[in-house]
Amino acid sequence: MNQLIMKEHVRDVNKKMAFVMILLMLISLVSAILYKMPTMFVLSGVDVAIAILAIFSSYKRKYEISTSFIICIYISLSIIGTLTGSESIYLILLPLSISALYLNMRLFLSCIALLDCHTGRS
After folding, report:
1. Which phi and psi (to 5°) does residue 95 adopt?
2. HSE-CB of 45 using CA atoms within 13 angstroms
3. What pTM was computed for the model?
4. Distance separating alpha carbons of residues 100 and 9, to the nearest angstrom
5. Helices within the chain (DSSP H only)
6. In 10 A of CB 71, how many CB atoms?
7. What are the backbone angles phi and psi of residue 25, rounded to the nearest 5°?
8. How many Cβ atoms from other residues are within 10 Å of residue 112's Cβ?
9. Fewest C-beta in 10 Å: which of 79, 104, 109, 122?
10. Quick one: what percent of the chain has pLDDT higher than 70?
11. First CA to last CA across the chain, in angstroms?
12. If you average pLDDT over every residue of the chain, what do you get?
């Protein structure tokens, strides 16, 4: 019973994160067009691929945990790419809060380790 509740929770969070990934894709496309940055088109394509994976896993009821790891790691890596100085260090809280939504300790600790590898360097 408890396993079923947690799987349903992860499935719901994956659906919501698929919506967030589609919003990120739209923002990436708009900024790619406005600032003439072709690399943003690639990032929006990755956003679409991850959103499709999240939607597919929620409807097929398979790979929910793997999808949650992929979503959190991708958002962590995209945030690491935007860190420019000490004033943007609060952006790190975004992937941490997303990983906390899943209520999975391994996912949360892996997200912390990934972000710590980048921010631990001086």
Report:
1. -65, -30
2. 5
3. 0.78
4. 12
5. 2-35, 38-60, 64-82, 93-101, 105-119
6. 25
7. -65, -45
8. 15
9. 122
10. 91
11. 47
12. 82
* Predicted confidence (pLDDT) at residue 86 exceeds the cutoff of 60: yes
Q: Is the pLDDT of residue 43 over 80?
A: no
The amino acid sitting at 6 is M
Which tokens go with 110? Answer: 């892996």
pLDDT at res. 97: 92
8 A C-beta contact, residue 72 and residue 111: yes
Angle CA 37–74–39, to nearest 5: 10
Which pLDDT band, with edges at 50, 70 and 90, does 1 fall under? low
Q: Give whole-number Cα distances, 77 to 3, 33, 59, 62, 92, in Å.
A: 30, 22, 26, 24, 10
